[in-house]
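Q: Sequence in, structure out?
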Amino acid sequence: MKSIFFLFYFLLCFSEFILPQKSFTAIITDPQIGAEENDKKLIDVVNDINVRDSISFVVVMGNITANGKFDEFLWAQEILDGLIAPYNVIGGAKDYFLSEGKGNEISLLWGDDKFFHYVNKDVLIGLNAFNPVYDSKGYYDIETRFFLHQIMNEHLNGQIFLIRNYNYSQQISNWEEIVDYLAIPSRKKSSNSINLIAIDEDKAKRKTEMPYIALTNSFGGKEEWKYFLIKIKKNGLSKLKVSKLKDGIKVKEEVLNISVRLPIRSTQVNEEKKIQNSATAIWNIKLQKSITAIPSLNNNKICLTSKYGAIICLDNHGKILWEFETNGTIYSYPIIEKDLVVAATNEGDLFTVNINTGNLFQVIGIGETITSDIALVDIEYKGMQTKGICFGTAEGNFYCYELYSLELIWWNKSIKKLINSSVIVTKGKVLFQDKEGTLYCLSSDNGVLLWKWGAKTKVYNPSFKSELVINNNSIYFLDFDGDLHCIDLLLGTDKWHIRKIEAIRVMELNNLKGELLLHSSKNELLTVSLKKEKVMKKVKLPYELKDEIATNILSFDKNLFIGFTNGSVYEISKTTKNIFLGFAPIISLDKLNNSLLVTDYDGNLTLLNLLEETK
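A: Exactly. Output:
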């Protein structure tokens, strides 16, 4: 009897080591559903995970889809829902920049694009860093940082494993701020132990400020497929690779001693960060909402749209007059027309709101995803002169709705490809581009296609969005290679072009001088003479801007102002000087009452008096 008792006691005490424990987290990387036979490989991986009793949680990170198509998202969800263990998804570049919803599909199908998962006292954190406005630099938006701040207030002990959906070689502008949130706890005297998990196909030896766990793609290499298992230990982590080879499924273990203390830097996240500028700030307001589109200024009012669906109206003194929630996602800028504000959600709803009261005037769902900006056009409808709202969709349709009734006036269904550009109206014409970079010109009266023109490029970048600039009888735009094209507005033919200048997105027209101002990836400001059809001047920008993208160029009196993705604004005159340094990418620069209005991605608006400088 005693022997049976002691045997039972032994099994009870050491059952942790005898019985299978759900102690592993499985990580699937870059499944890219829609490419080759990746769906069958993912089904095999899901089945293999399901037969392993030791797996308690699954992370799917990287490109969930191959082409950003909604059907690919749905197919990936159907396969992954076959997992027995709970799972979370952190998408990749193709999911955000090739999809019609700019990654909004992930939140729609899986509830969120970020997660927080405890494994005993330790925690796995997955955050999205993709910026829907600028595809070459990552940025954790203000809503993500609020989420992180809240959960870190409750995290008292244990290691932190940060899952990064950007490839390690790619930049994230506010990476250090996120590290601060994680490293500096609110209720502990010592710093947290932080470890980074990221996809890194370069296989380079990284010098990181924190322990780094590199993963390769699940469906690449010599194996038919592979995924990874990690088990968090007291002083380290076990990493296993489960792979299917020709001779069967193999498991290879590698023990990593990764837990170290990250030193607390001098920048404390609980300190109030102050925007630095050499120009005097007349006023500043923090909306604490992600702003992805330029504001509209008219009738002594400033109207903005936030990424997560708010329409916001301020007066010229920065006071919020009203907010209206659309319960959608907005990437396009609003338009003010008399007493109405017009805005469109990515989900396909068209709103008109009374600018004086913030009350809804009308709303209509068009049944398609709206992927372009919106524009107003003068048009005759039912025998009356009125305004039409023009926009393009993911299905390649282009619509014109009457402003005051939201009745459909005309549509063009000949494009057939996603329309993701700005929309510009001039002299009875509406112009825009599709994701292939083809430029279209429609009649604003009836939507009939007048002409289309496409450039042959060396690279393909469907997320690239060039500004469209009209001057006299020509339209100017940049192709995927960064070449500048001048197209005849009447004939739709290439009048001239300038190659190998590597211009990036933004352009500013100086009508008086007949010049176009461009930002080059070579960290230069280019001046192009429209008469001489060539680059006349190159201004080398400061070295600290070499990895930044110009987001806006504004001619102001005799000077130029340029905003950048690092939150800085530079004045270009006889010299180049930094007049403003914020923290979030600059969204727009606007002239307001002879002052400069700066709007950034975090929803900070600052009105600068350029006539005075701080002492």
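Helices lie at 2-13, 15-18, 38-50, 70-80, 93-97, 104-110, 142-154, 175-183.
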